[in-house]
Amino acid sequence: MKIAVIGCGYVGLVSGTCLAALGHHVVAVDVMEERVKQLRQGIVPIYEPGLSELIRNEVAVGRLSFDIDTAKATQSAETIFLAVGTPPAKEGGYDFSYLFSAAEIVAKAANGPKTLVVKSTVSPGTGSKIAQMVAKLSPHKIEVVNNPEFLREGTAIQDFMQPDRIVFGASSPAGIATLREIYQPLIDKGYEIFSMSRESAELTKFAANAMLATRISFINEVSQLAQAIGADIESVRMGIGTDKRIGPAFLKAGIGYGGSCFPKDVQALVHQMKTLGLNPLLLSGIEAANTRQKQIFAKRILDVINDKKDAVVAVWGLAFKADTDDVRESPAFDVIETLLKAGVTVKAYDPQAAETARKVLGDKITYCKTLAECTWGADVVALVTNWNEFITQNWEMIAKLMRGKHILDGRNCLASGRVTAAGLHYHAVGRPELKPGEGKMGSMGVVSAG
Ligand code: NAD
Ligand code: UGA
């Protein structure tokens, strides 16, 4: 099928490239001329493992191309995916200006019947509004369907190509039939499809993110009790996660969740319920608990510093999670801002996200090119992103580079026994503090998640 994907960000680039890899002819469009120019030169503007290679292959076989002209791409395609951003609006909910403006261009340019697939995350009911709008703007039948995306940054290609499920939302059998045709290669491999109304598909996406965020805020809250009574949240996590009714995923306590989706989607869900006169008791608490979790970690760093003059903190990681350069709503920023307000000098290192972070933080902190440079002279190391490079460190070397002796593990991802064997203090989230020499060699924050 001939497909146009509007928006070349984390979702548009990945889904467009994967749709090409499924055998479709895809033109991916973005309004940012520089972005399209780079993509045409083979430069991928975001860091996502495996994406550059897949783009190169699909461009080489002629199934994937890039353009800045949405109208032209619409006319050459049977199906148009909208994958533009839906950032938070100042007054609450989403800012749908990118989405509606892209839909308008598609409707005005349509030169025949089209299927318009909303891939961006939207509040339930948005598809109907788009359907009404395009029906007014185009003499042609434009079928508006919803196909929410569940990929995670860092594992996006695998999530798209080996999905837990694929959700189709449409108000007619024709819309479902088009989506089935697009995803037929994955259906043939046995991946599960759920067809439902457009509103149900929109709410499924909302509810999935809210459920995952709830689990994280839940375990983070329990981790506070663990910390207070000397229990170990990692043991508790295994103790509950092995119950088949609960399951182990998204129960990793830490510094709080970040990213471009959980914070905005939970807020938008709360906003929509309030707008409808409903009372989102549980959901309102999830975001509040997350904000508090980030503050608790920052305060623990300050407690360890204990008003030391000229304190230096080495922040390991700036991205909101490992394996991405995305810093949107990164918990690192909350921690750094608190440290800066307290007069602490902050040095930071991230394997991929220094440049994206610099756009937010400017010159407030020192960006280091290596982990060793970042760690040198630090009183405290604060690990905020669970990059593998941090987990596999040589702790004897880290101890020699530091001025102080305290490691704060905001992701419970380090082997605590290895840290303390190097003469360092180990502080984690919801785990007992360990002094130098305490703990077992190889004792880990168990498997990393997220
Ligand atoms: P993004 O900000 O990375 O990318 C959006 C892209 O759309 C940008 O490159 C922007 O220039 C482009 N754009 C904006 N208006 C345009 C227009 N009129 N025409 C063409 N291009 C236009 O956003 P993202 O992270 O890819 O998210 C996109 C949507 O997918 C959001 O609704 C998000 O909630 C949802 N989502 C994101 C993820 C994720 O992991 N990032 C996962 C699932 C769903
Ligand atoms: C999340 C969802 O997992 C995707 O299914 C969804 O498509 C996407 O949002 C979206 O709608 O944008 P993503 O934000 O890329 O994906 O990353 P996650 O792996 O979900 O992590 C989100 C945040 O939660 C990160 O800050 C991560 O470190 C944190 N997290 C995750 C935890 O603190 N604990 C966990 O156990 C898991």
Helices and strands, with pairings:
Blueprint: E1 2-6, H1 10-21, E2 25-29, H2 33-40, H3 51-60, E3 64-67, H4 70-76, E4 79-82, H5 97-109, E5 114-118, H6 126-137, E6 142-146, H7 156-161, E7 166-169, H8 173-188, E8 193-196, H9 198-229, H10 233-241, H11 262-275, H12 281-305, E9 312-316, H13 331-341, E10 345-349, H14 354-361, E11 366-367, H15 371-375, E12 380-383, H16 388-391, H17 395-401, E13 406-409, H18 416-421, E14 425-427
Parallel strand pairs: 1-2, 1-4, 2-3, 4-5, 5-6, 7-8, 9-10, 9-12, 10-11, 12-13, 13-14
Helix pairs in contact: 1-3, 4-5, 5-6, 9-11, 9-12, 11-12, 12-13
The chain binds nicotinamide-adenine-dinucleotide and uridine-5'-diphosphate-glucuronic acid (UGA).
The site of nicotinamide-adenine-dinucleotide has 27 residues, from α1 and α5.
Taking all residues together, what is the mean pLDDT?
96
Oligomer: single chain
The set of bound ligands, ions and cofactors reads: nicotinamide-adenine-dinucleotide, uridine-5'-diphosphate-glucuronic acid
Beta-strand content: 5-15%
Q: Which value, in Å, is the CA radius of gyration?
A: 23 Å
Count the DSSP helices.
18
Give me the side-by-side strand order of the main sheet: 3-2-1-4-5-6
Helix content: 40-55%
Structural class: alpha/beta
Low-confidence stretches: 445-450
> What is the terminal-to-terminal distance?
35 Å
Number of DSSP E strands: 14
Shape: globular
